[in-house]
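Below: protein 1.
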Amino acid sequence: MSRDYRIVSFLILFFLTLINAIPHPQFNGNRHRHATAVTNVVPAATVATVIQGNGNNNEETSTLQNNPNPTGNGNTPLITDTPTTGTGNGKRGLAYNSSSPSLSVFANTDISWVHDWNSDPLDAPSQFLFVPTLWSDQSPHSDNWASLAAGHQYLMSFNEPDNVGQANMRVADALTAYKTLMMPQRKAGAKISAPSVSSGSGNNEAGIPMGTGWLSSFLEGCNDDNTCQAYVIPSPFHSFPHTNTPSRSDFVSGHWYGCPGGTCTVSSDLTTFKSYVNDLIATAAGRDVWIPEFQRYGDVDQQQQFVQQALPFLDGKSEVKRYAYYMVADGILTEGGGGVSALGEAYAG
C-alpha cells in the first residue's frame, strides 16, 4: 500500500512539474486592444425617439439609432475612438442631444470628448471622443446595445438609477443588468463606468437611496457577488485568490445641479459642488471619477462666475478625469444662430 502511495505521489509531482513548464498567459493590467482605425462608425437607421432627463426634471430629447457592429471580425471589438484632440488637459467635454446646435463651433477649444445620453453620436465631429451611454436596461435603450457599444474605448451606464424620473433602478436590479449588459463590454476591452448617480441624498419617493448612497451600495454589491469580475475564468495555472482579478468598475460617474432657480449664492453652490465631488471621490475608493453632467442654475452671469471657479477646482483634482457642463443649447453654452455664448467661451476655453 505504501509503495502504491509513493508511485501515485511521484506521478502527481511529475504532472505538476510539466504543467508549470508550459508557458501560459498572464494579465498585464492592460486589457485594451487598440487598433489603427480612428473613426467612429455613425449608426444608421433611426428606430426610436426617447426622452432624457438631467435629474432635476429638465427633459431633453435624444434619438436612439440602430448600428451595424463596427468590429472587423465579430469577436474582438476594435477600439475605434479617435484620440482626444482638444487643446486642454483632456478632461473637458460637452453634453448634447439631437436639438443641440452643431458641435463644430467648439473646434480649437479645450473640448476633447462628448456624450449625448445615448449610443448614437448623431452629427458630432470626429475630432471629439464620443462616449456612448446605456441609459437604462429597458427597451429601446438596451436594444442592440452589444453592437452599438462595440469598439468604443469608454462606456457609461444607467442614467441616474437613483432618480424615479430617470433610469429608476434598485441596486439589485442594476447589478443584474450590469453583469449582463456592461461586463461583456469590459471583457472586450472597454473601460466601463458604474451607473451615473444624481447628487440627491436620503431616499427618493420609491424608498431607493440616492446619490453616493446608491453608488456605495452598488460598488459593495459588485464586490460581494463578483458581478464586476464575472469575466475572469478560474485557471489551474493561477494561484488562488487571483490577485490580478479586476474586482470593480473602471470609473464612477455622478451628476450635480445647484439650488433650484438659482436661489443660492454662487459661493454657496460652489461649496456644495466641491463637497459633492469630494464625496464622489471618497466613494470611488481609488477609481477614476467622471462628472458628465453638472450645472449651476440662475442667470448666465451667475453661471459664468460659477464655471470660472469650478473649472480650476476640477482641473486640479487628479481623480477627476472627465467632466461636462449641462449643456450645448441656446441660452446656455450656445446662443441664437448656433454660435458659442459668453458662458460657452468661459467653459470651452
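Below: protein 2.
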Amino acid sequence: MSGTAALEYGFPSTHSTNAVSVAVYMLFMLHSPATNLNETARTFLKVASYCYASSIILGRLYCGMHGFADVIVGGALGAFLSTVQCVYGEMLDNLLYSGSSLTPLLIILFICFLVRIHPEPVDDCPCFDDSVAFAGVMIGVELGNWHYSTSGWAWNDPVPATVPYSLETLGWMKSIARVIFGVLTILAWREMMKPTLLRGLPPLFRVIERLGLNLPRRFFVLASEYEKVPTHLKDDNVVPSVSEFPSLITSMRHPRRRAISIGPQSAADVYETLAHRDKTRRESGGGGGGSGGGSSGVSWPKRDASTHASAETRSAEDMHSVSSAALSRVHSREKYTTAQDGVLYTPISEAADPMDALHAAQEVASERRKEAQADREMFSNLEKPRVRYDVEVVTKLIVYTGIALLAVEINPMLFETVGLGMS
C-alpha cells in the first residue's frame, strides 16, 4: 500500500469496526435464551454474520484501502464495543436513565471532545461532516432518552424511555400519520434552524476569534475571512433540504445512466497516480544515482553538468506551476521533488560529446514539461471543492442534536397531544 493510500484511509479501519460490531452483536443475539429460532435458522444467520464481516475486511485489504494493522485493530475495536454493549448495555442504560443531569452532561462533553480531536482528513472529504452529524444524533439520543424516561410519558418496558406504541391499538391509518407527522417536524426543524444558525453564528465566531479562543480546522474558512454564509449550501447528504425534493423526484423518475469515469476522479486519485509514476521512475530510471546505467545509455561530460542541473531546475519550476494549492500537499506528502525522484541519467564521462549532453538535457526538460501539463490537466478535471465555513460544524451539531431530540422525545409527546398517541 502506498504512502498516499495510508494517509487517505486512516487507522483503524472504521469499515472493519462497523462490520465486526454488527456481526458480534448478531452472534450475541443468536445465543440469547430469548431468541426463538430453530437450529437451521440460527446456523444460517451465524454463517451470514461471519461472511458479512469477513467480506468487508477482505474487501478493504483487496482494494488497497487499508493494511493488515488497520483491519485487525478495527475489527478488535468493533468486537470490544459490541461485547460491552451486549454484556453491560442494560446496566449502563439504567445508570443513565436513573442518574442526575450530570450523567448526560458528561456524555455530551465527551462527545464534543471527540468531535474536536477528530483527525483532519488529508483531502477535503465529507468524512468529518458525517462524523459531526453522527455525534449530534448521539447527543440528542442520550439527552432525549434521559429526559423522556423521567417525564411520565414513556414506558419502562422492555427498556426505559420506550415510546408507547401498539399497532393493534392505533391501527394503520394513525401509524402512517405518525410517520408523516414526524418526518414533517424534522424537515421543518432543519429548514428553520439551519439558516438561522448560519446567519447568527458568524458574528459570535468573530468575537471568539478576536479573543484567540477559536479552534480552526483545515479546509474551513474562518469567520473573519467572509461576510456571510450562502443560504443554500449543498453540504448535507443525510437529510436533504425541502428545495432539493423536486430534483430528487425528477432523478428517481428519470434516472440517468451511470457515466463511465476514466482517469483520476479525486485529489486522492491524483496523488496516487503521481506516487505510482514516481515509483516507476525510481525503479526504471537507475535509482538514486551511482553508476547504474539508464535506459538511454548516454554518458555526460563534466563540463556540461550545469546544463543537466538547469534542466532539472526548469522541470522543477514547471512542476511548481501545477495547481499550487494542490501540489503543495503533494510535495509535503509524497516528497515530490526531482531531487528525491532519484537521478534519471547515467554518470558523466570525459569522452562524451557536449552536443549529445545538451540534446539529452533538452529531451528531459521537454518530458518534464509534458508531465507538468498532464498534471495540470488532471487537477483541472477534478470537481472543485466548495468553500467550507467554520460555523458549519456547530450548525450541523445543533441541527442533528435537534433531529434526534425530536425523534426520541418531542415527537412522541406531540403524538399524544394531537391525538396520534396511545392515550
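The first strand starts at residue 220 and ends at 221.
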